[in-house]
Amino acid sequence: MKLQMRTWTWMSSILIGLGMTTLAEESKDAKPAGPRLRVRFVETRQHGDKTISSRPCVLTLHADEKPTKVFAGRQVSLTTSDKMAPTVLFKNAGVDARVSAQSLGDGRYRLDARFEDASVLPPSASATSANHENPILQTLKGESKVTLREGETVPFASAVDPINGDLVRVDVALAAVPAPRAVAPSPSKDARLRAQFVLTRRQGEKKTASRPYSVVLQAGEETTATVFSGSQLPLQVSNQGQGELPRPTIALKDVGAGAHFNAQLGGDGRYRVDLWFSDGSLASQGASPTLLAFESEARLFMQLGETVTVGSVVDPQTGDVVEVDLTIEAVK
Asked: 30 in a domain, yes or no?
């Protein structure tokens, strides 16, 4: 086990080193940030002439940069086995969206977008599976490249649900985000920077949760920081050495709020921010644990003192509107 832990640590160091090398190479070839955009998916479900639900999902991104991603829903456990050695995996079941945008000029952008909505079928509606412990997922997914102008809304995908006959339609809209107002000048290289994330859940007008998290970084250099708060869920997995049969062992899965944050000060006084954020809680325990989860990933260019809503989505499991705001500010 000690050898195994050392191997994992060594591999993690290599991966982190490769990631930092990539970021360093990107910083050498830094280019001006593309316009900030807001992409809005709206999933509408109809049965005949009756609209059953209409759920928005909003992502903030910059053109000509990495994709922005958001997920809200549940992570359901799946059990598989390899030569009698069981392994527990987790699969997202909820709203999962990803989008990037390429500038075409004249206010036009080519979106590379993917949208998925999955839910667990109730036992009465589920077909018999080969493994009775694993749930069956009902899924709608669409992926396409489409050109939009600022302010335009177009149909993205539609399908008839073969289980209940509902017509499910997804529309996508694109909007330019106004440039932020002038703020305080960027600090010196010796100053410190605080990145604060606030996750908010709402039911209608009622705020059901508001959880802030923050981490402090050095302001004038490219730096990476992480923060996590929560618990660790023990899972049974299989471990196979060279020439050995698989054998069960235990791995720990983080369940809680965690963020990985990379920031670099640019020549225009803005920070290039690479963000990965997740928030989760244990929804059910036992042989098949389920997690209530939210995840977002984005690259943003932000001024000091600015607050940006990274993503906003309706959790299909609870009906909550879940959103994450990011603020960067100087530490006095």
From this structure: no
pLDDT beyond 70 at 128: no
In the chain, the number of structural domains is 1
How high is the pLDDT of residue 143?
95
Residues 148, 153, 158: CA angle, nearest 5 degrees? 105
Which of 288, 275, 314, 213 has the alpha carbon at shortest distance from 62? 275
Assigned domain for 257 exists: yes
Is the confidence at residue 175, as pLDDT, over 80? yes
pLDDT > 50? residue 176: yes
Token pair listed for 100: 């990037």
Identify the bridge partners of residue 321 per DSSP, sorted by sequence position: 202, 314
Let me know if residue 272 belongs to a domain: yes
Q: Which of 87-91, 217-221, 266-270, 314-318 is predicted least confidently?
A: 217-221
In a domain, 194, yes or no: yes
Residue 218 has pLDDT above 90, yes or no: no
Q: Are 273 and 260 in contact (CB under 8 A)?
A: no
Range of the domain at 297: 35-122+133-180+189-330
Q: What is the pLDDT of residues 270-303, one digit of tens each?
A: 889 999 999 988 887 666 788 889 999 999 999 9
